[in-house]
């Protein structure tokens, strides 16, 4: 995998990017640096730790569509191909082939969720020649859209992150047994990380900083797993 990564001023000079907090911008840089040769990154928690970023910073990158997140927690840099092209002899294919198969490339080099009218997913287009980047002759009506501003993939199944809460509970669940969005967010992220063997220490630390003990998160994880089993039975 290549050691050097490139960024494009088409993104970093965009008003939507400069409006981000400095920590969100730093998170974007670290996600880029740790991405594989196709722009995929499974070390989101590590990048957040290095950038001193919060969950809100991650949510900002997702909502503004600078990154795309899959159900397993893996993210991809949406505009990766706009700045990064490797010779074939230096390119290492991503190990996240299932996620790549759910993406297409727009003419401007941006990833987007690809779905046909009948709901079928298509494999992302890839060049067979020496450079691994978008072709010059690809037709796309949205080619002038630098960052799919305000766009959400049509019919995409990306799970929306819950809105942040102003005052998280302190190491306890509400008396009525209901849980707020922040607990569910941490519980789902940690559950995803555990299923794929990723480290969860950083996520637990962030949860603790927002007032949620490990016991509360673990209890919610058990509840989520029980709910899933009940739905499948």
In brief:
It contains 9 helices and 5 strands; from the N terminus they run H-H-H-E-H-H-E-E-H-E-E-H-H-H.
Give an overview of the whole structure.
The chain is mainly alpha-helical and 233 residues long. It folds into 2 domains: 1-158, no CATH class; 181-232, no CATH class. It contains 9 helices and 5 strands. It has a 3-stranded antiparallel beta sheet, with helices on one face. The chain has a two-stranded antiparallel ribbon with strand order 4-5. Helix 3 (22-33) packs across helix 4 (44-51) and helix 7 (181-195) packs across helix 9. The model is unreliable at 119-179 (pLDDT under 50).
The Rg value, from CA coordinates, equals 19 Å
**Helix-strand makeup class:** mainly alpha
Shape: globular
- Give, in order, the helices and strands: HHHEHHEEHEEHHH
Query: Count of DSSP helices?
Result: 9
The averaged pLDDT comes out at: 75
Q: What does the largest sheet look like?
A: 3 strands, antiparallel
Number of domains: 2
Percent range for helical residues? 25-40%
Question: Could you tell me how far the N terminus lies from the C terminus, measured between alpha carbons in angstroms?
Answer: 43 Å
